[in-house]
Amino acid sequence: MTAAPRTLELFYDVLSPYSWLGFEVLCRYKKLWNINLQLRPSLIAAIMKDSGNQPPALLPRKAQYLQNDIRLLGQHIQVPIQLPKDFFSVILEKGSLSAMRFLTAVNLEHPKMLEKVSRELWMRVWSRAAEKAGMSTEQAQGLLEKISTPKVKNELRDTTNAACKYGAFGLPVTVAHLDGQTHMLFGSDRMELLAHLLGEKWMGPVPPAINAKI
Questions:
Q1: Which of 16, 19, 42, 127 is catalytic?
Q2: Over the Cα atoms of the chain, what is R_g?
Q3: Less Cβ around it within 10 Å: N or C end of the chain?
Q4: Is residue 210 part of a domain?
Q5: What's the domain count of the chain?
């Protein structure tokens, strides 16, 4: 008898490039590890504020390190991530509130499309080669009209608060529910530890089954 999938929650924001990296790795492993991956769109700015943390881009040395780190990790994990030319504007000025409300609306109305639409938004923010996620213009327009509704606002706030209650101080955060215990892992570089907790094998960021398709 096949064991029931273990539940993992991934809290993420498309403003976070590390969220994209963690997202892609977990999407590659969800069948290999028999996990029920629950995508939880959250607002990184609110998590930062609640925890007293601040964006790395505000600190010159961290900002400089981050740019090179993202480039190298993108190559290693095989995610087409590129820093936008207006990097600091994207990070510090534009924010992600509208985007995350949009993903929240997608999750409420068309949950099966959340993975594709999330990836599309990351592609638009962090890559020049965006592909359509398969959503019709009418569907997209309908969701855009809902991003200011109380239902969407409350859902995004509740999801962000849930991340904060788990102890989040940034994103991505992966929460594993295993044998009655809850484990919160921060960052996109804790996948080997997650494999240990799951009792599964870590085969690198691009497992052989995926690598064969590339």
A1: 16
A2: 17
A3: N
A4: no
A5: 1
